[in-house]
Amino acid sequence: MFHARTLICALFLAFALPAWAQAPANVLMIGQRLDDLATLDPAEVFEVSGGEIVANLYDRLIDMGNGQPKPALAESWRLSADGRQFVFTLRKNAKFHSGKTVSAEDVAWSFARAVKLDRGGAQLLSQLGLTPQNVTLRARAEGEQTFVLDLGDALSPSLVFNILSCYAASVVDSRLGASVEKNGDFASTWLRMHDGGSGPFRLELWRPGQGLILSRFAGHYQGAPAIERLALRHVPESSVQRLMLEKGDLDIARNLSPDDLAKLAASPEIVINRIPQGGLVYLGMNMKVKALADPKVRRALKLLIDYDGIARNVLKDSKTVHQTILAKGFHGALSETPYRQNIEEAKRLLAEAGYGKGLSLTLDVRAASPSIDIAQAIAADFAKAGIGLELVQMDNKQLLTRYRARAHMLTLAQWSPDYPDPHATIQGFAWNPDNTDGSPFRLLAWRNGWNIPELTGLVQGAKSERDPKSRMAAYEKAQREALANGPYAVMFQDMQIMAVRTTVSGLKAGLAFDSLRFADVKKEAKK
Amino acid sequence: MRRVLTFPLTLLALLGCTFLFMKIAPIDPTLAVTGEKASEAARLAAAQTLGLDQPWPVQFARHLGRVMTGDLGVSTLSGQDVLSDLALAFPATIELALAATLIGFGIGLPLGVAGAYWRGRWPDHLARLVALLGHSVPVFWLGLMALYIFYAALGWMPGPGRISFYLEGLAPRISGFILLDSLLAGRLDIASDALAHLVLPALTLGLFTSALFARTSRALMLDALGQDFILTARAKGLSEGRVVFGHALRASAAPLATTLALALCSLLEGSVLTETVFSWPGLGSYMTGALMAADMAAILGGTILIGLVVAGLNLLADMMQRRLDPRTA
Amino acid sequence: MKPLLRDPMALLGLALLTPLLLGAALGPLMADAALETHLEARLLAPSAQHWFGTDALGRDVLARTLAGAASTLGLAFLVALLAAPLGLLLGAVAGTLGSWAETILMNVTDIALAVPRLILALALAAALGPGLLNAAIAVALTAWPPYVRQARAETLSARKADFIAAARLCGASELRIALVHIAPLGLSSMLVRLSLDLAGIVLAAAGLGFLGLGAQPPAPEWGAMVAAGRTHLVDAPWIAGFPGLAIVMAGLGFSLLGDALRDMLDPRQERC
């Protein structure tokens, strides 16, 4: 009895004490949804959250800044005259978290394991022509400090740099890897939960379903980061993230709903950062459907959508209006938005095309917010010109299956590029080498039946174009062609929205999801 | 004796149920091993190693064998052995359940005793009210409202979680009980942080248990106070305090101890909902998280563990009953 | 029925349950209002127009709470209909037949009693997939054992009664005696136990709903509504608050009514 009472008293005492401390200034608290995080192996990650964390645990040969390669683990590099060989010289002072010096052997081993493991990372590296058969020959160490990459075909250097700067090309500690390898798994079982990198932060603790703690790596070649610990906590609900941010239990909240963002907008302690991302929301129009094969009808549809209204009222500015196929922020992206809602003009075009009396269409849409909200708004817009639009709701897998079988009329789809080079997107929208039903290449142009042999050749050529100007010219042409005649009404560009307390500065983020870096973040003590 | 036999039978039934669930769930068990992108050949090979081509009785025998050796499979959600996941989560649940039992005992027992002693007067009504509320208020809702009032609105209590997350991992993990581990490491700051986080969920669950204790202790005391030996004690001129606490309460000790064990059982269940509300990283959160991701191995592993503990506690309660209460011997 | 209406606690219980039962009865009429979304009227605080406010899709929380009574109470009654008669029959059969049949039945019951309810329901719902009916099956599967125990105890004491001996003399089979003569005897205590149990069943059903295993959205169900209200707890506590209060009302109502029923039908047992 007595015992129980003392303990209860102790519990009640907790009421009186401000017992839980506020996060100190040397710890950065981040609240985000982390339930998709299944692996931290750079050769395996494909989800956004994993890519971001890997980018802070590992270094790559190079980083990208303003479209130009910047030294990271490689301090210099040179290209052969024919553009098929890249030679990187590694810096001498870079160390892994294990203490081992980063050598060219490590780079070669990292490439080989990523390609041979054949997961997410292999798909990206295959753009460089690397296959499980040739990777040890083509990506190899020549001495301690020299890493050589041979390409099968010449490629545009900026494409190569963009791929080498992304998470799939992270450099892993090969000695550590060898010691934890089991049954030829290229250490992937171990690396899934642990870190074998040289990045500014090391993985201190990961509790699946709860969060991760990263601590700074004092031996990083750029010097130790200012923040000692990064606590990334899984907080699934937007409202809880907002509450914790307001209370100072979080410094950064990542997944706030438009409602919660609106409530935070007035707070003097919080800044809301909106960082454009590479993803797009667009309406795909299947040209196998007779009405949609008519360019006048497609133009009419593009003129019926109330882009600004949907962005403001439905999306609450969580996405921005964007109408070309290349997202703003990519090198060479056109930012013009020629389409505004113009119902009279659309009616005239429809009448010219022979649909003055009306037209019935279906729209495949994912049964989830905000897709379904956007679709409803589009249906209301189309109705103004006598187009009856029936919404067909389904889950994402079913939608993709129909899309890939060209079984849709209209589809409300999302696009996100696999790697941060314009080629990834342009190829998706404007490259269709075989428009027959049996084609092995089923990217977006094929799915919407856009037969463009000439444009396909242009895009193909640009992939290996070494003159940046001509490459950009080709991409500009592709964008204009898609904007004017393509079977797409590109509408919105994704944004990464982060609510950050004003005590935090130095956060770096960019177009690619793995470009969020914490190394230079500083945090002042609470004012 | 029957109870002792029931224990292994219960376990067998539990394993039978989980095996059945695994079979009727529309989820391909090879997915957990090979991942989504594996080829058909790799999938078939995995099916063979898992023994999925064998007849059901053989599969069940293998399932038994695996569980007996502690192999509960791999969680698709965390990518870890279910057993090691459970080992991480279990202490958190025990910590919460013990705290809630203490609170429930501390509130419920005095209420029940007072209710029985002053039968029909206000302490009795109060005991009845607490018992009623504990029986009728859903813990998940109570927890949410407590969070809303004491964290969001008033700011008196820390938010969801077991400790402030940035303190995670600073005290070396020895027992898995954060309170204990942080005290062992001499980190009073972590211990008090953890204690503060414990208050709301433990009180929420504690109301539920206090109802159970108030109800049981009141009935037991009423029974005891009506017995002859109490009349004798009073006739001998013992003080009322001695009569109530020395005689009547002592006579009720055995069934109360049984209730205590049974209360822990129901707490394990209540914790599923409470943990979900408070993001308490125990078994309950683990299982609901697994539920959302259709992670069958994790769900069934959790079911087996909780079933094991509950069956064990039942057995213990029964044995205590026999040891402490001469009437049932 | 009269003594029941004189007990103030029972009256309070009835008063708590009446609006909910009315809601359950009128639920189908309210289905449209409960599902209608008005995006321009989202998250409105309680007012004269919306007594309980509106939720994240602008649906009226009052209409949803009343319509939700049909799901939650319906599930509870479904469970009661499945579990209690089954328990009664099994208990009567076990008590009448005796010997090995009794041993087996009571062993199975002991085992089922030892299995944690919500956890089993959770695992079962995970295997069968979420849905109102599956949730009912899951709760029912874990709710029957106490009825078996009670019915068996009653049977044991009734077995020696004269009219049973008479039936036996007339050549009635043991099974017939169990089903026709003994089972009805346990009916009144089954009802008492059931009314006490309903509160627990409502809570278990709402708990499954809260975990997303009951009725699927957009159908209104109290547990699921509380779960949905979590998202807006800070700005719109009424979304989670009112359906939660409805659960409390149902729980209190059944508890009070059950206590009163027990006092009336079974005065031997001590009330608490």
Keywords:
heterotrimer; A: 527 residues; Dipeptide-binding Protein, domain 1; Dipeptide-binding Protein, domain 3; eleven-stranded mixed β-sheet; four-stranded antiparallel β-sheet; B: mainly alpha; 14 helices
Descriptive account of the structure:
The complex is a heterotrimer of chains A (527), B (329) and C (272). Chain A is α+β, with helices and mostly antiparallel strands and 527 residues long. Chain A has helices spanning 2-16, 48-57, 104-117, 120-125, 135-138, 157-164, 174-180, 188-193, 238-247, 258-264, 290-293, 295-304, 307-314, 343-352, 371-383, 396-404, 422-429, 444-447, 453-463, 468-485, and strands at 27-32, 62-65, 68-71, 74-79, 85-90, 139-141, 146-150, 201-207, 211-216, 229-234, 252-253, 270-285, 319-321, 359-366, 387-394, 410-415, 488-501, 504-505, 522-523. Chain A folds into three domains: 27-33 and 199-275 and 496-523, D-Maltodextrin-Binding Protein, domain 2, CATH 3.40.190; 48-191, Alpha-Beta Complex (Dipeptide-binding Protein, domain 1), CATH 3.90.76; 277-495, Roll (Dipeptide-binding Protein, domain 3), CATH 3.10.105. The longest helix of chain A has 18 residues, at 468-485. Chain A starts with a helix and ends with a strand. With 329 residues, chain B is an all-alpha fold. Chain B has a single domain (84-328), classed as MetI-like (MetI-like fold, Orthogonal Bundle). Chain B is built from 14 helices and no strands. Chain B has helices at residues 2-24, 31-34, 40-49, 56-68, 82-117, 122-136, 139-153, 178-184, 188-225, 228-235, 240-251, 253-278, 283-292, 296-324. Chain C has a single domain (7-265), classed as MetI-like fold, CATH 1.10.3720. Chain C is elongated and about 75 Å long. The chains are: A alpha+beta (527), B mainly alpha (329), C mainly alpha (272). At the B-C interface, helix 1, helix 6, helix 7, helix 9 and helix 12 of B face helix 4, helix 5, helix 10, helix 11 and helix 12 of C.
Uncertain regions of chain A: pLDDT < 50 for 5+ in a row? 9-19
Uncertain regions spanning at least 5 consecutive residues of chain C: none
Computed CA radius of gyration of chain A, to the nearest angstrom: 26 Å
Rounded radius of gyration of chain C (Å): 22 Å
